[in-house]
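Next up, a specimen:

>
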Amino acid sequence: MRQPHGLRYALLGVVSRNPSGIHGYALRRKCERALGGFWQLNFGEVYRILDHLVDQNLIEKVETRNRTRKLYRITEKGRASLDNFILEPPTDAPRPLRQELSIKLLFAAPEHLDHVLGLISHQRSAYLGHLHDLSVQRGKIARLNGDHLVTKLLIEGAELHARAELAWLDDVAQTLKERWRPTEP
C-alpha cells in the first residue's frame, strides 16, 4: 500500500504554521484551503495521520482547558523531518497514460471507431468539467485574505495538465479518424 507522504507532510506543514497549536477541524480546513481543493480530507484520515505523527514524536498534543478539542503542535523532530522532506527531490514519478481510456484505445478495433470517438468525447467532457472546477477554486482563492501564491500555482499547473490532456484527446480523435475511417472510393 502506498504511503500518503504528501498528505502526511501537508498536515505537518499546516501544524508547523500554528506554533500555539491547532485542532483537527481547523487543521483539515486549512490543509484543504492550502492544497487548493486537490485533496479532499475526511476527519478519520486526518486523525489517523495525526495519531501516527504523535506516535513518531513529530507533533505533540498540547494541554488545554477545553478538553473537547485536542491541539497539536510540531516538535523539533517534526520540524527537522518537514525540512528534510521539503529539501529532498520528489519521489513520485509522472504517471502518463495511467487512465482507463488508454487501455480501451490500446485494444479497440477500427470497426468500433464511432464508439471510441464517443469515449474520447466523454473523457473530454470530464476534463472540461475539471477545468470548470479549477476555475471555481481559483475564484475562491482570489476571495481569501492573504498570499496564496503556491496554491494559485498548483491550480495553474492542474489547468495546464487538463489542457494538455484535452489537446492529446483532440489529437487522438483526429488521428483515429484519419487512420480508421474508411475512405470513399
Notes: The first helix runs from residue 5 to 16. The first strand starts at residue 22 and ends at 23.
